[in-house]
Amino acid sequence: MLENCKSARERWGGVSEIIDRWLQSRQALIVSFCNLSGKKTFADGDTESEEQLRELCQNLVDYVSAGHFEVYEQLVLEGQAFGDQNGLEKSRELYREIDATTDVAVDFNDKYLETDDLSSLPSDLSQLGEALETRFASEDRMIDVLHTAHKNQIA
C-alpha cells in the first residue's frame, strides 16, 4: 500500500499513521495487562480472570505481530530511503533487545492458551511486565532513530 505513494510526505506520513495505530494497540495491551495484574488473587474457575487473561493474550499477540510484521519493516525502509546508516545500525541493536522480549510474550501466550491453572500467573505477569517495559523502551528508541529523526526532511 505505502509503496505506491507518490511523495515522501504521503509515504512517510503513512508510516506515522501505522505507528499511531500500533501505539493505540500498545495502550490497549497496557490496559488489559493492568486490569489483570491489579487482581489480588487468581483462582481456577474464576471466569472474570480467565476472560481478562484471554483479552491480554489477544492484545499481546496482536501487538507483537504488528510490530514484527508491519511496523519494524516500515521503519527500516524509511531508514534505508534516507540513507541513515547510523539509525539502521542502532535499529539492529534495538531489534535484538526487542526480539528477546518476543520469546517471553510468546511463551506467556502459549502457556495460558494451554492451561486453566492460574497458580503461577502472578509471577508470569511480573516477568511479562518487565519484558514489556524493555520492549516499549526499545521500540520507542527505534521510532526515534528511524522515523522521528527524518521528520524535517519529509516536509
How would you describe this structure in keywords?
5 helices, elongated, single chain, 155 residues, mainly alpha
Structure description:
With 155 residues, this protein is mostly helical. The chain contains 5 helices and no strands.
Secondary structure elements and their pairing?
Elements: H1 8-37, H2 47-81, H3 85-114, H4 121-146, H5 151-154
Number of helices: 5
Largest sheet: none
Order of H and E elements? HHHHH
Record field, number of beta strands: 0
Q: What is the typical, i.e. mean, pLDDT?
A: 87
Note the overall shape: elongated
Quick rundown:
The protein is mainly α and 155 residues long.
